[in-house]
């Protein structure tokens, strides 16, 4: 299934993409840029959404009335900020802001900003979505104003667009060096075209500038300090904000921390290592339920069976009449790289593919690889802006590997992670704008780093590396589910207790591993 095996920067959207060149222990001082006058919030009516849009945002049928009730409480507005903080009197852009006021204003503790994932994720409706997640995490709103915002380049904030071109089609089976070179050159050319489409705006899409925008939000709201709850890339944003504005930062909880460096190549390597490591857990789980999946009674037997399956499908890819995609070794690697909530489905697909015959795809295989993306719902807000994703990553990335280096990295990855590795892309090759350094350092103040022991999108070792670079307390979630700390009730209780008291224990069990 080669379409999933190759791509450029946009192929990694919504992972913890914190890319660029960073030196731990250093910081971009807040005084490095001029302080523009503070813009007041231009409050205005919030957007109206249909039930279909609200359902698409993750609200179940019974939650839709609750969403609408919270939407009535939500305040929506914009602030004006400089596009380039080195030129505060120059071009201005608009940042979209929301506020869900504390339910108990008499015991209010302050403002708590949601720092969304991505880069490129929208946080505009996060205050409402947080209150609907579960009753435990909803208590954050009892004593805190919940602040949402769209980073520059996203949704209702000022943005631009350069749609990424799909990688060139190559045949199924193992990727050849010649095909990889075609992919690399096409993606590098696409990066170049995107970067040149609006360089004045795209060049200012950086984590540091988003942090400066967030501090303008703080000032416009009249808050002396800003507390932060960051997710995925939002953890990097939180770390950068804390380094730039230590005196304006309150309590900070960062879930699934990014590493304290920003190299595309190093980030990609960390994800690949963590994914292969987590497959060992999946193999043990599949062995425990061998009567269901038939892949082996030990983790070693399961690993051998899946590796053989990958080699078999690379040697003889299968095309089914009811699937657009051809199933090859990369398809097997994708299934083996799933996290625990998807193990039952992935296990069924692997079992089906062991003995697949006939012209039609087995049911679970079709369910996974034949799913079509849902059409956009009219009036829906933009949840991820891929132009902002690419620009922010590439503006901070100094790795920008040439083809020979990228091909060598790919070959080593296949050797080190033979079951789950399949991704090849150009990264930020060809990006025409200069790389900008983003640095973080230790400061005073309260900080919790919520690392997930088996997370594949944000390797647990990054939590420890981040702690070494910026300090803070590690809170370990014993699962492989990215940013689950606010979703699991037992963990959510701890998150609320931290923001209420400043204290937290050492971790929680996290998302339970399912049964077949």
Automatic annotation (TrEMBL):
<feature type="domain" description="AB hydrolase-1">
    <location>
        <begin position="115"/>
        <end position="289"/>
    </location>
</feature>
<dbReference type="GO" id="GO:0016787">
    <property type="term" value="F:hydrolase activity"/>
</dbReference>
<dbReference type="InterPro" id="IPR000073">
    <property type="entry name" value="AB_hydrolase_1"/>
</dbReference>
<dbReference type="InterPro" id="IPR051601">
    <property type="entry name" value="Serine_prot/Carboxylest_S33"/>
</dbReference>
<dbReference type="Pfam" id="PF00561">
    <property type="entry name" value="Abhydrolase_1"/>
</dbReference>
<dbReference type="Pfam" id="PF08386">
    <property type="entry name" value="Abhydrolase_4"/>
</dbReference>
<keyword id="KW-0378">Hydrolase</keyword>
<dbReference type="InterPro" id="IPR029058">
    <property type="entry name" value="AB_hydrolase_fold"/>
</dbReference>
<keyword id="KW-0732">Signal</keyword>
<dbReference type="InterPro" id="IPR013595">
    <property type="entry name" value="Pept_S33_TAP-like_C"/>
</dbReference>
<protein>
    <submittedName>
        <fullName>Alpha/beta hydrolase</fullName>
    </submittedName>
</protein>
<feature type="signal peptide">
    <location>
        <begin position="1"/>
        <end position="27"/>
    </location>
</feature>
<feature type="domain" description="Peptidase S33 tripeptidyl aminopeptidase-like C-terminal">
    <location>
        <begin position="427"/>
        <end position="506"/>
    </location>
</feature>
<comment type="similarity">
    <text>Belongs to the peptidase S33 family.</text>
</comment>
């Amino acid at each position: 299934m080669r379409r999933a095996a190759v791509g450029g920067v946009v192929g990694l959207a919504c992972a913890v993409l914190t890319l660029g060149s960073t030196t731990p222990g250093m910081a971009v001082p807040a005084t490095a840029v001029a302080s523009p006058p503070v813009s007041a919030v231009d409050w205005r009516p919030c957007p109206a959404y249909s039930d279909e849009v609200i359902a698409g945002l993750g609200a179940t049928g019974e939650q839709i009335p609750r969403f609408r009730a919270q939407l009535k409480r939500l305040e929506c507005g914009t602030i004006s900020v400089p596009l380039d903080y080195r030129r505060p009197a120059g071009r201005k852009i608009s940042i979209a802001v929301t506020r869900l006021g504390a339910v108990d204003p008499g015991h209010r503790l302050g403002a708590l900003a949601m720092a969304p994932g991505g880069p490129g994720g929208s946080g505009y409706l996060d205050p409402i979505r947080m209150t609907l997640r579960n009753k435990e995490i909803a208590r954050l709103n009892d004593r805190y104003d919940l602040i949402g915002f769209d980073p520059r380049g996203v949704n209702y904030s000022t943005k631009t667009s350069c749609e990424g071109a799909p990688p060139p089609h190559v045949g199924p089976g193992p990727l050849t060096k010649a095909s990889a070179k075609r992919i690399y050159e096409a993606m590098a050319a696409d990066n170049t075209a995107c970067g040149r489409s609006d360089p004045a705006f795209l060049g200012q899409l950086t984590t540091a500038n988003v942090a400066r925008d967030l501090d303008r939000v703080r000032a416009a709201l009249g808050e002396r300090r800003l507390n932060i709850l960051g997710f995925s890339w939002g953890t990097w944003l939180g770390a950068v904000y804390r380094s730039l504005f230590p005196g304006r930062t309150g309590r900070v909880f960062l879930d699934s921390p990014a590493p304290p460096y920003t190299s595309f190549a190093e980030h990609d390597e960390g994800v690949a290592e963590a994914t292969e490591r987590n497959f060992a857990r999946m193999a043990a789980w599949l062995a425990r339920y061998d009567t269901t999946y038939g892949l082996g009674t030990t983790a070693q037997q399961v690993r051998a069976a899946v590796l053989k399956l990958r080699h078999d499908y690379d040697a003889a890819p299968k095309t089914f009449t009811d699937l657009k995609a051809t199933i090859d070794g990369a398809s097997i690697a994708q299934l083996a790289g799933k996290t625990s909530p998807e193990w039952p489905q992935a296990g069924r697909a692997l079992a089906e593919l062991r003995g697949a015959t006939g012209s039609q795809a087995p049911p679970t295989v079709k369910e996974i690889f034949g799913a079509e993306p849902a059409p956009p719902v009219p009036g829906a807000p933009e949840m991820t802006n891929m132009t902002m994703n690419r620009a922010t990553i590439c503006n901070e990335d100094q790795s920008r590997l040439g083809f020979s280096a990228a091909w060598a990295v790919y070959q080593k990855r296949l050797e080190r992670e033979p079951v789950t590795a399949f991704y090849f892309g150009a990264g930020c090759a060809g990006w025409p704008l200069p790389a900008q350094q983003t640095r973080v350092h230790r400061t005073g103040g309260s900080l919790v780093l919520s690392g997930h022991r088996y997370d594949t999108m944000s390797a647990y070792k990054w939590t420890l590396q981040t702690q070494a670079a910026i300090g803070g307390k590690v809170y370990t979630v014993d699962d492989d589910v990215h940013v689950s700390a606010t979703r699991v009730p037992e963990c959510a209780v701890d998150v609320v207790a931290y923001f209420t008291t400043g204290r937290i224990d050492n971790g929680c069990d996290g998302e339970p591993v399912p049964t077949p």
